[in-house]
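DM from R.C. (forwarded with permission)

"hey, sorry to bug you on a friday — could you get me a structure for this? deadline for the figure draft is monday and I only need the backbone to look sensible"
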Amino acid sequence: MKKGVKILSWSAFALVVIILLVFVDNSYSAIPCAVPSISITQEDGHHFITEESVKEQLSSIGYPLENQSYKEIEVERIETVVANTPGVKKAEVYKLNNGTLALEINQSRPIARVITMNGLISFYLDDEGNTMPLSKTYIARVPVFSGNIDYSNGNIISVKEIKQNDSLKKVHLLDDIYDVANAIDKNEFIKLQTLQVFVNENKEFEITPRVGRNRIMLGTANNIEDKIGKLAQFYTGVIKPKELNNFDTISVKYSNQIVCSKR
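My reply, with the result:
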């Protein structure tokens, strides 16, 4: 008898749960979509991604949101699409109980623009060593790397892939470009002073500064952070601004010395 009562009680409980789940599901389906809440980090003031571009992207994959039920919104699909958008480092998408679709987007932060030797390929390099295509609506103010950068095969790979493969290191320059760009980016003074970086025929780097009519010779990417630190010290503690144009070249190629040649 007790066993029968117990079974009956559990059956009734299960029925109530099923009814509640159906009720909740129907109520959830009836919730209309609200205006999405889009939060975009814009580190260093870059604007690769905007609220309007995100809304357009949602609409293009079948989520205009207007007149859609909340149940139709596939969070995982949206998150995958947005996360794989050029210029996006990370994306999180989730639903709120009031019918709002929330998107939190972290943008990638470019530290260099690379233009290949033939000028046919151009892309950004971010602070994690990943390549980014150029934007149709936004131009980032970052140092431009040009000159003897050969990507005639059109095969652009990440810095991480190159650094993990010795054979790739021998034929690619992108890892060196990243090291130089990263060192410049970390030094606020040199970052502001750098307009362009030219790669010469010896695969050595030359800075074209914003102030002064000089060529700044960095040499190879070896010990590049020391070279950039030495250059910053020269600008801020050794040379006076009015004396800069007396020199044709300023070289930090060699360890523990700065070599300047007069015009």
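R.C.: lifesaver. The first strand starts at residue 37 and ends at 41.
me: no worries. The CA atoms of residues 250 and 260 lie 5 Å apart.
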